[in-house]
Amino acid sequence: MGLPTSTPPQVLTAPNNGQLLGAGGTTNSYLTFADTHASRQNAVLFSDNDGFLYAMGYNNTGSPTFLWGWMPQGLLPQLQNYNTFWQGTNMQGGFHTTDATNGANPAQWHTYVAGSASNGSILYDLQLTGTTAANLQNTIWEDDLGGNYSQPQPSDPVFYQYQTPGTKNFGQTWALWAVNKTISATSSTSYLIGVNVGTGQSFQDALPFNNTATPYIDASGNPYLGDNTGNVYEATATVLQSLLTPSTGTKIPSLPAKDFITTGPYASSTMWSGSFSGTYPFMVQYIGGSYYQGKNYLRVQGPNGITIFSQLNGTWSPVWTAYAGSVGGAGIWSSSTFTTQTSGANPPITALPAGSVVSAPALINSGAVILPVTVPPSANSCGNGDAYYYLYALNNGIFPSGTFTDSTGTAITSALFVGYGTAFTPTVTSFNGRTLLQGAASNTGPSKTFPTGFGAGLPLGGPTGWKLVN
Question: Which GO terms describe its molecular function (predicted)?
């Protein structure tokens, strides 16, 4: 095998999409699919820079089974240089599974794997089949874009799915990616690319701005992107749906600027104090959302900080922010007026450490924002940095006291140290009836384990990212 990718493994269980199972109606064909595949063996999918996406089946007896390995056709010519090939970034990207129909009438359900490789220059869509194991059936679609294409950040696709039983498009699902095409050292064009995972029908549309963010789709089906100056661009679900019937011409269409509403910037030199490294210190990298206590929230992140927005009458307004840079700081908005937090603020919003980096998408759970932050080693040190989770209340930014405890039941009262190297997005699962927050970083250090946090019983804060829509 080659060098591992930074893409987290994906656990594939038997079909259990709660939104599809709860869609109701006598015409819900997903119920039959879930029933006939209820005994399908669980599997772990993972990628490796030897050029393969692998699937391993497992069960509670501890006897793993190799199911399959798949390599994109676009990588095959490079195998002649395998002595260096396996050390490259061949499968660097992201992937995710989804249950969807293949466009047939009546609907035929399958599980699909959509993802990217070679930093986003290769996009793919695979069909799995089998009631006892998730076997690889077909490569539905592969788009070898070329070496001058890349994703802003290695990331999974986002999915848009029709979920109204009885309609002809029930279960049809589109996987979406944002990629950039480098034209010269100073010029690039951004595109939104999508594929119907069941049929292979695809589209590619040029964006009217240079996108730097991974795509996000909210509960209403509205897509979001961002640029290198801190602006967030939102289109309506109607605009997105218009792309799902691609034109048959050979020219790549361009989306007009009027199709997007601009929010932000989420950060600027007039809001954040101190100096910041990098050519575009206020670029948007990650966008996500949550519904909590009757209100929609939007999180916008870049390498140097995070800003939370709330929605009123369809308009997004900033609420609070925390940032790093040369000094680190925080601030709040009141009636559209920004105020930098002073040292005497009570209760305070925790500033990020000077020189630290927001290294992965935040997770929102139990009304708390869990932000992965990597603190580099001191200037006179050659060791690894430290990985932390900085914790904030979603609605006001203060520390979410009482939200999480450690394994002994002691309340977590400050940033949570999770290991060494880069801090990654945590995972949240249910463990013995409690919410379990599992940390992740490049290295555990001497403990050989990543710390965990437990929810203290507060209600969950809503979805952590995109939501499937009708």
Answer: carbohydrate binding
Classified as helix, coil or strand, 188 is strand
Report the predicted TM-score, pTM, of the whole model to 2 decimal places: 0.90
The amino acid occupying position 385 is G
**Whole-number Å distance between alpha carbons of 212 and 178:** 9
Q: Are the C-beta atoms of residues 113 and 96 closer than 8 Å to each other?
A: yes
For the chain, the domain total comes to: 2
Looking at the DSSP bridge assignments, the partners of residue 333 are 338
Signed CA dihedral, 197, 246, 284, 378: sign only = positive
Distance in angstroms (rounded) separating the CA atoms of residues 100 and 169? 10
Q: Are residues 280 and 189 in the same domain?
A: no
Quote the domain boundaries for residue 51.
1-206
Same structural domain for residues 276 and 192? no
Per-residue pLDDT in tens (0 to 9) along the chain, 470 residues: 555 667 888 999 999 998 899 887 777 889 999 999 999 999 999 998 888 999 999 877 667 899 999 999 999 988 888 888 877 888 999 999 999 999 887 789 999 999 999 999 999 999 999 999 999 999 999 999 999 999 999 999 999 999 888 888 889 999 999 999 999 988 999 999 999 999 999 999 999 999 999 999 999 999 999 999 999 999 999 999 999 876 666 678 899 999 999 999 999 999 999 999 889 999 999 999 999 999 999 999 999 999 999 999 999 999 999 999 999 999 999 988 999 998 778 889 999 999 999 999 999 988 999 999 999 987 666 677 899 999 999 999 999 988 888 777 888 889 998 888 899 998 877 666 667 777 777 776 655 454 555 555 433 333 333 333 33
Which residue matches tokens 């601009």?
Answer: 262
* Torsion angles phi and psi, residue 377, rounded to 5: -65, 160
Q: How far is CA 404 from CA 63, 321, 411, 439, 463, in A?
A: 35, 21, 6, 13, 18
- Interacting residues of 121 by C-beta distance below 8 A, sequence separation 6+: 74, 144, 145, 146, 147, 148, 149, 150, 179
